[in-house]
Design brief:
Largest sheet: 7 strands, parallel
Order of helices and strands: EHEHEHEHEHEEHHEHEHH
CATH class: Alpha Beta
Shape: globular
Helix content: 40-55%
Number of strands: 9
Number of domains: 1
Distance between the termini: 42 Å
């Protein structure tokens, strides 16, 4: 029997990519799922793929750019399931534009979706987790949350902010049995580059070459679930690009040289 059987798990960004892969893997392990994303039709598609009965599945569509009703969303989940065991903050989008060309409005949108929405949903579930004396909160950061990179200034800033928030939160809530994990994927084969915002506010609409032969979302999901199972505080997922984190730590001059040779795409 899976240890996730009957666990109530809320996944944002569940309509594609890593979020979809997580939903399907948790469904196979007989978890009870709340799936959220902006695109309701895609949520319904993923919901059908889980093959979960209505009793164990809730589709809760909303836009991460507006989380004023985060507490109301959490209350809806509590009304149906009576508890929230795991929150996986996964939704968001990337960037492909130079800082000098990016309007401040786009910078704010990137922070709203990739940082403030995570904080809002986390604060919405914390009182319930505290009351039930346990829970897990997962924040999907990025390798860009460990160092900046071309064309990703505000995306990287938002991901860096997640680390400050969740590392602090971990210390404040672990006495209540609440566990916190940060996930830093590198290059994963999803539509993240397609959906990345450009300086004019439109989508990049291209698959970055570096993502073409990257790790699959399914494998990424399996590694995330392994990290949750093992109560990890931070995990790194991807290919050789993950080595850059240790190179930066131990060989900063080499890191700077290698980083400047990388393609933004």
């Amino acid at each position: 029997m899976s240890e996730f059987k009957d666990k109530v798990i809320w996944i944002t960004g569940a309509s594609s990519g890593i979020g979809e892969a997580l939903a399907l893997e948790f469904a196979r392990q007989e978890a009870r799922l709340i799936l959220s994303a902006r695109r309701e039709d895609e949520l319904k598609r993923v919901g059908a793929l889980t093959k979960l009965p209505e009793l164990d599945l809730m589709l809760l569509p909303f836009d991460l750019s507006d989380t004023k009703n985060a507490s109301g969303l959490a209350a809806q989940i509590m009304n149906k399931f009576g508890r929230i065991d795991i929150l996986i903050n996964n939704g968001g989008y990337s960037q492909r534009s130079e800082a000098i060309e990016t309007p401040i409005e786009i910078d704010r949108q990137l922070m709203e979706v990739n940082y403030f929405s995570y904080v809002a949903l986390t604060k919405a579930v914390l009182p319930y987790m505290k009351r039930q004396k346990g829970g897990q909160i997962i924040a999907i950061s990025s390798i860009a949350g460990k160092f900046g990179f071309y064309l990703r200034s505000s995306y990287s800033a938002a991901k860096h902010a997640l680390h400050g928030f969740y590392e602090s939160l971990r210390l404040e809530t672990e006495s209540f049995g609440i566990k916190t994990m940060l996930v830093c994927p590198g290059k994963i084969k999803t539509n993240v580059s397609f959906n990345a915002v450009t300086a004019n506010g439109k989508t990049h609409n291209k698959m970055d070459e570096s993502h073409e032969n990257a790790m699959s979302a399914d494998e990424c999901a399996r590694q995330i679930i392994k990290g949750i199972r093992n109560n990890k505080e931070e995990i790194f997922i991807g290919g050789k690009e993950i080595l850059m984190i240790n190179i930066r730590r131990f060989f900063p001059k080499l890191f700077s040289k290698l980083l400047r040779k990388q393609s933004p795409y």
